[in-house]
TrEMBL record, chains A, B, C, D:
It comes from Chelatococcus reniformis. It holds the Pfam family Csp. It comes from the Bacteria. InterPro entries: Csp_YhjQ, YHJQ-like. CDD domains: DUF326. This is Ferredoxin.
């Protein structure tokens, strides 16, 4: 897709990677571990993070100027999700994917 | 779903109705009419509107506090989409659904 | 949307209602009840049901002939989800929405 | 995500890559080229392909056994989309992404 800038392409990749990691971790690791992993605030945050990442990627692919707003919201939720996963522990992949996506989205939102 | 407030339930319904109307209108009426109906800025706005409505409904159903931010963005895109559909003409259903959703989302974002 | 048949419009409504009920029930009732409500097979089935309903509605709105296949799969998953919710109990709304959607989708798949 | 098999991880990647390529191509290249690129049957096929790829990836990440059915449908739509893009021409990226995804999904559906 020659039509999208390299920075935007990288951000789409980061969003899709974070979407996959959050959803996969929530529906496998968290659901199987139970306990605080399925506490409503944590689990909802994981699912909200997966959904906003999916949507931000979609907005950039559609090439709508509103992607700046979804990217800003995505950066915020990803940062919060990274912190919550780090607090609970055992989800290093998810922490990494969320931090990378937050940084990438922050740039696109600027 | 007894767990969600009546205002939130109404907003979810408005978002899903607007999602369906925008997507259905874009992929049928606009695509078949051609011309300015498939001009990139208009068509992208219709698709962005459908997607943010879908996502805002999702955030309210998940019951995440971040729904206030997706609802604010949804209200903005819906208002813009209503204006653009009114300008082009022949899409009264879409104008109505977008205005109703914008109003509903503005309340949830407050 | 004058362009879609009344039967298809009704099926879209049933799919979106079932999507909202399954997702809302999973992320509120099930997550808060815990126990067998968050047992991986049940919770995954609820989330798969929400997603296929969302997709089937999308396919009908796009007006692609492939909607017959997503509707067939949707009918199957909804029927299974209704049975599992009935088995666990306390989710009558979800059972009703799933059965209505299954019947509606079965007709569209024929 | 250690919990998913290497073949499933590869298929998720192929689905997300094909989703991004189809959606990005439709909403940029096709919309800007106009003509047969926005003919309803072609454009709907591109959008249906993007959506089923998104859904198949979601089903695998959720880890539901129903992913076999969405993967089978995904393989079919991707193959059809690849042929239609090849027929129109100038969308080699999309042809490649669709063929790779079709092959990957066919294996997961078996």
């Amino acid at each position: 897709m020659h039509h999208l800038s390299p920075a935007m392409k990288a951000c789409i990749d980061d969003c899709l990677a974070c979407y996959a990691t959050c959803l996969g971790t929530a529906m496998n690791h968290c659901l199987e571990a139970g306990g605080e992993h399925v506490a409503p605030p944590h689990f909802r945050l994981m699912m909200a993070c997966a959904e906003i990442c999916r949507t931000s990627a979609h907005f950039m692919l559609i090439n709508t100027p509103h992607h700046a707003h979804t990217c800003r919201e995505c950066a915020e939720i990803c940062a919060e999700c990274a912190d919550d996963c780090a607090r609970i522990g055992g989800m290093e992949d998810c922490v990494r994917a969320c931090r990378a996506c937050a940084e990438s989205c922050r740039k696109m939102a600027a």
